[in-house]
Structure formats: structure tokens, C-alpha cells
Amino acid sequence: MTAPTAARSGSDRLHRERRGTGAGVRVAVVAVAAFLLGGLTSYGQLLLPPEFASLANSASGWAIPTAVLVYVSARGYAEAALGGAAAFVALTLGYAFTSAIRGIEFDPVTWAVIGAVTGPVVGAAAFAVRREVWPAVVGAGLLAGVLVGEGVYGLTVIGDTTSPAYWWVVVALGATLLAVLAVRLRSVVPALAMLGIAATVAAAFLIAFTALPSLLAGL
After folding, report:
1. What sections of the chain are H helices per DSSP?
2. CA geometry: angle at 207 spanning 202 and 211, to 5°?
3. Where are the domains of the chain?
4. The pTM of the whole model exceeds 0.90
5. pLDDT digits over 76-93, tens only?
């Protein structure tokens, strides 16, 4: 190995180490922010008006901040997936910590595991929205499908016990994301594919969340 080659190899290694350190710091910041937001969620259940109380007791109430945090911070798919997992778990732990302070018992294990599984998907989808056409199609379709799916779940399955206001807002956010990406894509085929992904994810979400109480009761 010649001297210039060795120097270049050392420089590349140093660059990778710095990049890894930067990614670790960004993921840590995401986790801390999510922990604080999770704590606010517990107080939100107490302080939010009835029309928007579901914000503090919904999947979208954690999926949205996770997606936003990863969207503005991640520099790659691996970092986005790790950040998504860290955010969801930290949200759960923050909620459990603050609930304990309020004297409310909450076992975070089940939802932390769910967050560790679903968080990477949400994180990668949020990062994909910033990328080229087809990754953006998949990412936006996934995120919009989660929002619309939970909105429909709220309006139908638990519509008798919750205000419809928040659920309509969630559906509107999902539809807005699709509309914004469709305008950006300016192509019919990707836009239709995005709508198809969103519809599929929304249906899967509705089915999964409808079955979730029975599954959790069996644990």
C-alpha cells in the first residue's frame, strides 16, 4: 500500500467514524425529544378538551411526532429506521414515567415492543418522503395509510365513545399528505400507486387495530 493510498484509507475511515457519531447523536436527540413528548401525552389525557382528547390516546398521536422528528433529522434509511424505533420506545417510556408520577399504573413493555417493531417502518417511511419518486410514493402511502386508517377506526369502531373532531383531523392530514406528494410527483402512475398503497395500509390498520384488544387480552 502506497502512502497516498494509506492516507486516503485513513481519511475514509475517519469520515465514516464521524458520520456514525453524528448519526448516533441525532438518534439520541430524537429519543430525548420523544421521551419528553411521551410525558406530555400523559398530561394531554388530562388537559386536552374532549374534542381532541384522542390525540393523547392514539397511534397517530405518537406516529406523527416520530415521523416529523425523523424527517428533519435522519441522513439515511438505517438512521431513520433506528430513529423511528428509538422514538416510539422513548414515547412509551416517557408516557410511563409521567403516568407513574401522576399515580397511574402503566406497563410499557407491550407498547414498547410494538413500537420497536413499527417504529423503524414509520421512520424509514418518513425519510423516504424526502427522496426520489418511488421511495416517496411508498413512504407517503404508508404514512397516509396509517393516518387515514386510524381516522376511520376512530370514526367507526370507537365512534360512540370518542369525539369525531380529532379523527376527522387525522383523516384530513393523511389526505393532505397524499395531495402534496401528488402535486410534487406530477405523474398519474406514481400518484395512483401511492393511493393504492395508502388504501391498502389503511385497511390493514383498521383490521389490525380492531383485533388488537382481543390479542392484548390474551397475553
Report:
1. 3-47, 60-73, 77-101, 109-128, 133-156, 164-185, 188-217
2. 145
3. 1-128, 132-219
4. no
5. 999 999 999 999 999 999
